[in-house]
Amino acid sequence: MSDDVSGGVTAVLGPTNTGKTHLAIERMCAHSSGMIGFPLRLLAREVYDRVVAIKGANRVALVTGEEKIMPPDARWLLCTAESMPDRDVAFVGLDEAQLGADPERGHVFTDRLLRARGREETMILGSEALRPMIKALVPGAEIVNRPRFSTLTYAGAKKISRLPKRSAIVAFSAEEVYAVAEMLRRLRGGAAVVMGALSPRTRNAQVAMFQAGEVDYLVATDAIGMGLNMDVAHVAFASLNKFDGKRQRRLTVAEMAQIAGRAGRHQRDGTFGALSDDGPGAFLPEEVLAIEEHRFPRLENLYWRQGEPDFASIDALVASLEARPPAGVLRAAPQALDLGVLKRLAEEGWVRERTRHPKMVARLWAACGIPDFRKVGLDPHARFVSRVFGHLSEGRGHIPHQWFADEIARLDTVAGDVPVIAGRIAATRIWAYIAQRADWLAEPAHWAARTAALEERLSDALHASLTQRFVDKRTTALMRQIGADAASLPVVIGPEGEVMVEDHPIGRLDGFRFTVAADARASDKRLLLAAAEKRLAGERTRRGQSLVDAPDADIALDESAQIVWAGHPVARLGAGPSFARPKLILDRALDCLDKTARERIETRLSRWLAGMLKRRLAVLVDLAALSRDADATPALRAVASAIEEAGGILPRLPMRLALEAVDPDERKRLRKIGIMIGALDLFDIRLLKPEPARWRRILAGVRGTVITAPRDGATVLARGSDGATLEAGFRPLGLQAVRVDLIERIARAAHDSRTGRAPFAPDPALATSIGLEPASIERLMAELGFKALAGDTPRWVWRGRPPARAVPVTPIDPSRQNAFAGLAALVRHG
């Protein structure tokens, strides 16, 4: 489109950074009068200031819900879309018209797109996705595409500490904005903060800091996606999810592009990225491609609501607002807040009593349009509107002077932190909105001035509070010096890892992790953190080489599965392909090293881990190899794999069929690597020693199995106590648990005492027991395949292998208690 286009409707479509808004301003100023509707009060104010510089303050008007600057000779009006007056002007423009697809405000933009027209020229500005809607709804419009002046490129994920200067970090809640800004204050000296809820005065003051270079970073909500003019080189997304008023959802690609497009200025290229390279906060490849190539799904519908409702009665008003749109691409808008409030008030008898005339119905509807700047929700806001309408529908129809004055006085204090002051500004905006309704107050001009002055005071206080909380100007200034000559500031690392800059202790270097001192937020110590970070690189490289060269004795595995070197965690174990093959995961603190150094460290630690596994858990390593041995039979491989997966201790009964398929020679292979094929369990007795047992517990833990350690030297435990499980090497028997190797000694002694299936009596010399109770002995003998015979003297008979399920145990005759106790002595004398 050439710059001299006039007459009719023109739709200027394209991505961000195409100069669409600048073109609309030029076209408007070329006409004798004009008006542009914007999506944000902040944007309307920004363009107002630009047009005032061209045309003069007495010829330009600003019309928003909370603010009206309307000189008598005003010819050019800058408005929010909701506040565009019905005025005959030569030029009309509508910015960000694709917002007609927004569920909350879309019907407003659709109405302006359909009905707002200039005498001589109408210009609709929007994204390329709007093209089908323009063709369907404004068939006579000329559609012009404006390409982006510069290139927008994906720069990947960068941590906050590594973001380039002139970056804007975008978050989607006030809490997230404050958290990111606080992080930047500590790492980079500070950041400006921009949110849609800020007043224009606060927003302009914050942006001015960023534009002037007082801070190099800007933290904002998605408000910056709506054309706010800032010199941003890189846009980083703190998140890709937002709460849209009803649910938490992922941004659409078009929304991502709208925000990312703020990067770059005119013909200077820009970049975008995220703070995370995995999870829901990371860009998908197809999203990156669509943003870089400006290819987005076309809009198929716009939201619509009757722009000229019927004020004959409340019911007629509600019916007209809920009317279905004409057939085609328009969809009925979801119920907005104003309609929800209207329905709530329509249930009140006194409201219906006072709205018998169309003028009073229109007055009620105007009251329902009071925005909920405080975000208190439908019910509290409806109660507030009800009180307002109560005053508007009685007497002279004015809001009482005293109520208005009391509310303004209550808000007129600058004490409090950022959220408190921001909340007062939101409340003040409601009263400013009311003050702009000339027929709602006896002295509207007076109260408009009062609310404007209050908002300015609160805005100045909010700017000061934001700056105090999120900006350290001394740190920012020092960082510029550091950037010019990092070597000029001496950094000393003490023998205990203490980091000092110019004799100021500012933190510790524990291994590879730099920890800021607890009092480093004090400005005189925090100033030097950036210098320390730059100079720590050499020390970390030296430590990385020391780790590579470290002897095995300097490396250890702690109980939390962390591999520790010189007292500092450098890696951890994770679940691997099998029990004896855990995964080695380098500690994130090593991310500060380059790729080559990390690979050398990983190789060193892998070699150490393999050696320790062979030393402490040799049987598991051998079982893992045997389970993959192509020369072994399937049955042997299955048994080896099952024992290894169980950590070297496995009950025999579930493996009975597999064991029966293992021939004698293969059983010898199992015994050769240390596996005892016991009567009840398969195990390696070496795994019960303290250090192998500790490694077993740790490896089981990384696979999700918790094994508690028994007390040192225990042979028999009370059932339910720590370690009284088969996984820990103790077989539960009744109310006790016995170490598995002792059970096998008892089993051998019992089988040595019997002759075939003839009854036999336990050796009385077994009286000195290890603590086995009679009930535990009887349970054990039953599981070993013996049956107790009736009589005063305990005798047993071999009945064969136990069945697949547990054998019920008969209560022990008290007369046989002493004789049973002797059997436990087999443990010591067997």
TrEMBL record:
InterPro entries: DEXQc_SUV3, Helicase_C-like, P-loop_NTPase, RNA-DNA_Helicase. SUPFAM superfamilies: P-loop containing nucleoside triphosphate hydrolases (SSF52540). Coiled coil: none annotated. SMART domains: HELICc. Keywords: ATP-binding, Helicase, Hydrolase, Nucleotide-binding. The keyword Hydrolase applies. The keyword Endoplasmic reticulum does not apply. Residues 155-322 form the Helicase C-terminal domain. GO terms for molecular function: ATP binding; helicase activity; hydrolase activity. This is ATP-dependent RNA helicase SUPV3L1/SUV3. It comes from Sphingomonas aerolata.
